[in-house]
Structure formats: structure tokens, C-alpha cells
Amino acid sequence: MEFSCKDFKVGKCQGQKLVDGQTMPFVLHPPEADKADIESLLLALKTNKDWFEQLIIKNSAVLLRGFDVKNAQDFNDIVEAFGWDDIRYVGPAPRTHVYKRVWTANEGPLSEFIYYHHEMVLIKEYPKKLLLFCEVPSPEGGQTPFVPSFRVTERMLEEFPEAVEEMEAKGLKYTFTALSRNDTSSMRGRGWEDAFGTSDRAETERRAKALGMDMEWLPNGGVKTILGPRSLTKVFDGRKGRRMWFNTLVGMYGKELSSAFMADGTKIPEKVVKRCEEIIEEESIQFKWEKGDVLFFDNLALLHGRRPAKPPRRVLVATCK
Q: Is the peptide bond before 311 cis (omega within 30 degrees of 0)?
């Protein structure tokens, strides 16, 4: 697809990369100085909705920069301009509802690095698109780095072909332990009552089952969730047949509250996981926020994370089917 749209001007940003012929992120500016207002942007998005969606699939990450996007209300208007269905976040990250379809991003301590992941990768229904808005950029750090997922698969197959195909054939299982109530001192501190939207254990079990989880109640009031088997990689329509590294192996392997192993119980060699972690970092694109930025991710194609930051930092998020 060639770029052709009178309502936007193509730009550049720090950290931008060319990956297999795709510019990531693809940057769009107002076509003229007097077209930077939110009303002009909303009109441009509605007019070019199908084109814009194809641009997200083609380039995996699209950045709107230089537009006058001020707050959660403006951001929500952008989200709703496309008519994409909402999908409720399910996961361990502590978050706060802000306005309509808008939530805070992970409210865990800014001093911690949030590891690369596809949003809700372990849940049966995961978002296709992830939208992020920078209301307050951090004075230092706080980047949202992202990684073309297919590149991880390619490189892991080059270095560990037998291990990759064994994990693919057997599938992966994961465990995660959650407390009863939220703990905002941890980036994975969302309690099960908040995560499942109920304090009733029977209802929690029903909702967990619908999401593809098994549960074990713990004496301290917490719960251990078991997910799997899940595939190691996935191929999605419209993305050149690329095999995406659609898992959270590195993020959950050998952690205090989580684990990852092959579905038949086989342990995954630590050297494989460690090298995968290095490859993901090597393939990362280090995106730095500016105030008012709106970033669109193809969640099927990209892993993303958060660098440690100095406060204040406020990034808002919306997840879409």
C-alpha cells in the first residue's frame, strides 16, 4: 500500500527503524499548522478510516504527533472515531478507569521495567489494536519500546530450531499468583477481585473458565491461575504469513509469582529463555514520548514494554477488538 492521504503529512521520530521494508513507527503530522486541532484530526480519521486501519496492519505502529490532543476526553473521541469494539482488559497490571473507554496504563512503580508482551496474550480473546496517549511525558526515561514479533521467531529458529519446534509441538503452560486486593507497589499487583470484577469466588471461577483459566485458591486469600496449553507462535491473516512470537515465555519464566513450562511438564532450558530475552532487546525500537502523542499498535504484530521513568508520567490506554 502506497502512502497517499492529503489529510496527513509524513514525518520522522527518534528511534524510528526500517524493518523488512516497514517504517516503525510510521509518523503522521497535521498537513498544515491550522489543521492540528482535535476537530480536524477527528474528521481526517473518520474520512480515512479504512486507509488508516490498513496502515496500522502494514506498519504495525502508527504515531500521530503534533496534533492538539489534550486529555482523556480527546483521546476517547479518537478511539471512538474508528468504530472499533471495546475489549475489557484482563491481566495483572493495576489500572484505573479514567473516562469511557480510557484507562491508565500500568500503574506499577515507575522505577520498574515492564517487560515486553503482547497485550492479553494468554487470554482467549485478546485485542487486535492497542491505543496509547501521552498526557504527561516523563522528564527522564519512560519510553514505550516495542518489538516486531516475527523477528524474534526468525532469530530463535536460527539459533534454537529444535527447542522452538518442541515448544511449538507441546505447547506452553503458565501459572500466575494474584493476591485478593490490589497492591500498587507491584507492576503485577492487581488483585483477583479487581481483575475479575467480583469478590464472589464461584463467580470468579466461572469468569476464569470463560477466559480459559483454571484456578487454585490459596490459604492467604490469593489465587493461583493456570493457563494453557497455549501456542508458542501464531500466524495472523494479512500480515505476510509472518510467524509471530505470540507468548509471554520470557516475562513469566522463573519469576516469584509466575512460571512458564512446556504443557507436558518439560522444563524449558534456561539458556534458551535467556538468549530469547537478549534477542528481544536487540530487536527493540526505543520509542520516546512527546506530550500529546497518540500511538497505535497492531497488538498481533508487536510486543511492547515500559522503560523505568522519573515521575511524573501519565500514559493512557484503550484496547480494541
A: no
**Cα–Cα distance for residue pair 176/230, rounded to 1 Å:** 14
Q: Is the pLDDT of residue 2 over 60?
A: no
Residue 235 to residue 121: CA distance in whole angstroms: 14
Q: Which of 272, 164, 161, 170 is nearest to 230 (CA)?
A: 170
Quote the CA–CA distance of 182 and 94 in Å, as a whole number.
7
Burial class for 220, CB neighbours closer than 10 Å (0-12, 13-18, 19+): exposed
**Residue 142 backbone phi and psi in degrees, to 5:** 80, 15
- State how far the Cα of 283 lies from the Cα of 147, in Å rounded to an integer: 6
DSSP 3-state of 313: coil
Q: How confident is the model at residue 194 (pLDDT cuts 50, 70, 90)?
A: confident
pLDDT per residue as tens digits for the range 13-51: 999 999 999 999 999 999 999 999 999 999 999 999 999
Give residues with Cβ within 8 angstroms of 2, minimum separation 6. Answer: none
